[in-house]
């Protein structure tokens, strides 16, 4: 039978009709979209470390997976430093956080185990759970009791494996924090493994930027993920935990086993960024002040609660209106992006305002004025 239409175009047209079509756009305007919270992506200390590595002959490419010839001294030096810095037994460097999350949840839990994940956990965790061998369920967002209840139900139904509790410490679309200590208590009560994704907290929160769950690092039942492409301003991801867990990832983390290793130069960059992170108290204070300023310049005038972190969501609900308001802000010189389902739940489309040290308080003031104008000109 002859094909009478382009199935790909049909799907694209359907997305466009629902205001869900996504396109790549160049960088333009003041940065309210990136995750470069401390402005380290252009940090001269990190750049100098990479330049010096190139000068001494560190190769650009790794040449293969880490289990073949891709395991460079720079990777191992980074992992040793990261483990010492975060206070864990071992660390593993991977290409990005998405890959790492998938490797953790597909590779570590066993076939008789149960994964209980926060309902708003990142897409990478969902993909990892689908590929893994363990049963998985979702718990109400930010509700430690819901995690406890899910584990108790599973035990009552005859579950005999090990439970796994999975959450982000700081959620990328709502900017709210997980009840880390309550989740840790649930994990201790049920002898569960606790997997915490510090993606949006690393470098920004905690002592020396070590994250919101820094006090849990080094516990034998805790696995942490520190992505490097956000607050650290570079690229890749570091998984930290007990040495047996890290060694099992080397064997069962398919995204690690079958991927070409990250560039040794990026390992150098990440190690330099970690040192900058430790010395960045002034930058963290400046970002906290900017967040407070945004509470007055943006939230107060819109009758919204103050920001809970450097991530400020303006929930508009309707997909099409969200995108029109975002386009108006972009036209006014502010790089604010609209976020729609499936990235966020249906009916919660939003503007995600990311506060970084790439902008100043007067620019935040100007964004607040532009946002009020755009919301008035694009009615619900």
Strand and helix map with partners:
Layout: H1 7-17, E1 30-31, H2 44-55, H3 73-86, E2 90-94, H4 97-107, E3 114-118, H5 123-131, E4 135-139, H6 144-156, E5 163-168, H7 180-190, E6 193-197, E7 222-227, E8 237-241, H8 243-252, H9 254-257, H10 264-278, H11 281-299, E9 311-317, H12 319-331, E10 334-335, E11 337-339, E12 349-354, H13 361-377
Parallel strand pairs: 1-10, 3-4, 3-5, 5-6, 6-7
Antiparallel strand pairs: 2-8, 7-8, 9-12, 11-12
Helix pairs in contact: 2-10, 3-10, 4-5, 4-8, 6-7, 11-13, 12-13
N- to C-terminal separation? Answer: 46 Å
Tertiary shape = globular
The assigned CATH architecture of the largest domain is: 3-Layer(aba) Sandwich
Give a short account of the largest sheet.
7 strands, mixed
Alpha carbon gyration radius: 22 Å
Outline the low-pLDDT stretches: none
Describe what you observe in this structure.
Strands 2-8-7-6-5-3-4 form a seven-stranded mixed sheet, with helices on both faces. It has a three-stranded antiparallel sheet with strand order 9-12-11, with helices on one face. Strands 1-10 form a two-stranded parallel sheet. The protein has helices at residues 7-17, 44-55, 73-86, 97-107, 123-131, 144-156, 180-190, 243-252, 254-257, 264-278, 281-299, 319-331, 361-377, and strands spanning 30-31, 90-94, 114-118, 135-139, 163-168, 193-197, 222-227, 237-241, 311-317, 334-335, 337-339, 349-354. The chain contains 13 helices and twelve strands. The chain folds into two domains: 27-42 and 280-377, Aspartate Aminotransferase, domain 1 (Alpha-Beta Complex), CATH 3.90.1150.10; 58-278, Type I PLP-dependent aspartate aminotransferase-like (Major domain) (Aspartate Aminotransferase, domain 2).
């Amino acid at each position: 039978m002859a094909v009478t239409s382009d199935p790909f175009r049909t799907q694209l047209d359907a997305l466009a009709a629902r205001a869900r079509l996504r396109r790549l756009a160049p960088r333009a305007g003041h940065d309210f979209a990136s995750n470069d919270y401390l402005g380290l992506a252009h940090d001269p200390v990190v750049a100098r470390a990479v330049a010096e590595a190139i000068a001494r002959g560190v190769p650009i490419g790794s040449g293969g997976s880490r289990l073949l010839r891709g395991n460079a001294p720079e990777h191992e030096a980074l992992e040793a430093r990261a483990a010492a810095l975060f206070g864990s037994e071992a660390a593993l460097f991977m290409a990005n956080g998405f890959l790492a999350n998938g490797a953790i949840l597909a590779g570590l839990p066993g076939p008789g185990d149960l994964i209980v994940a926060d309902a708003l956990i990142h897409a990478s965790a969902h993909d990892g759970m689908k590929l893994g061998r363990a049963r998985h369920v979702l718990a109400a967002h930010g509700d430690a009791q819901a995690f406890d209840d899910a584990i108790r139900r599973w035990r009552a139904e005859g579950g005999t494996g090990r439970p796994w509790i999975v959450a982000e410490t700081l959620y990328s679309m709502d900017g709210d924090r997980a009840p880390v200590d309550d989740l840790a208590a649930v994990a201790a009560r049920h002898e569960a493994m606790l997997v915490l994704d510090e993606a949006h907290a690393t470098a920004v929160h905690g002592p020396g930027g070590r994250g919101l769950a820094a006090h849990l690092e080094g516990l034998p039942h805790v696995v942490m993920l520190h992505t490097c492409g956000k607050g650290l301003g570079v690229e890749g991801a570091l998984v930290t935990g007990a040495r047996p867990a890290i060694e099992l990832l080397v064997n069962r983390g398919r995204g690690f086993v079958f991927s070409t290793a990250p560039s040794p130069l990026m390992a150098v960059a990440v190690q330099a960024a970690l040192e900058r992170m430790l010395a960045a108290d002034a930058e963290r204070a400046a970002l906290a002040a900017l967040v407070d300023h945004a509470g007055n310049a943006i939230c107060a005038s819109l009758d919204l609660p103050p920001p809970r972190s450097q991530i400020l969501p303006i929930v508009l609900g309707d997909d099409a209106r969200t995108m029109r308001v975002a386009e108006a802000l972009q036209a006014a010189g502010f790089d604010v992006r609209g976020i729609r389902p499936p990235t966020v739940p249906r009916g919660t489309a939003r503007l995600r305002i990311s506060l970084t040290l790439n902008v100043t308080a007067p620019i935040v003031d100007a964004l607040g004025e532009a946002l009020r104008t755009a919301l008035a000109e694009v009615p619900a």
